[in-house]
């Protein structure tokens, strides 16, 4: 079972970013599967950490492309990244404190992020980069 399936509306047609988005969805679905199996906190910690780490790596990739190609919407896009990073850190802290509602909260947040950031903001980035590279 998957939390979010890969669909063509996620594609931005920039291979490096599309491949990273696929990896992020894979990690999100791994987390979803682990929670559905009833994994305990200790089992979920590495999955959550891997997803957070990979997300930050992905943001660095995008932001390097912003700089390299002088993306005009870089400031607002970076603000979205910072908001996401803050939320993920807050989720991780709540999880570490043992708040059990975290599992559903983080999944809803991540699904919303895919629908509102990847399918909208990142969609503007793809055509811009494809005219530059």
Largest sheet: none
- Our count of helices gives 4
Uncertain segments are none
Order of helices and strands: HHHH
How many strands in all?
A: 0
Report a brief summary of the structure.
With 133 residues, this protein is mainly α.
List keywords for this structure.
133 residues, Four Helix Bundle (Hemerythrin (Met), subunit A), mainly alpha
Give a written overview of the molecule.
The structure is a single chain. With 133 residues, the protein is an all-alpha fold. The protein has a single domain (8-132), classed as Four Helix Bundle (Hemerythrin (Met), subunit A) (Up-down Bundle), CATH 1.20.120.50. The chain has helices at 15-36, 41-69, 74-96, 102-132. The termini are far apart.
Helices and strands in order:
Elements: H1 15-36, H2 41-69, H3 74-96, H4 102-132
Helix pairs in contact: 1-2, 1-4, 2-3, 3-4
């Amino acid at each position: 079972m998957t939390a979010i399936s890969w669909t063509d509306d996620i594609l931005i047609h920039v291979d490096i970013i599309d491949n990273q988005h696929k990896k992020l969805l894979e990690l999100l679905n791994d987390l979803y599967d682990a929670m559905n199996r009833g994994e305990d906190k200790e089992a979920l910690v590495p999955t959550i950490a891997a997803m957070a780490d990979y997300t930050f790596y992905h943001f660095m990739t995008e932001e390097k492309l912003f700089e390299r190609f002088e993306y005009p919407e870089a400031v607002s896009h970076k603000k979205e990244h910072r908001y996401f990073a803050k939320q993920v850190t807050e989720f991780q802290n709540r999880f570490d404190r043992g708040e059990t509602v975290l599992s559903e909260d983080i999944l809803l947040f991540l699904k919303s992020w895919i629908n509102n950031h990847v399918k909208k903001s990142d969609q503007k980035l793809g055509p811009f980069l494809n005219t530059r590279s």
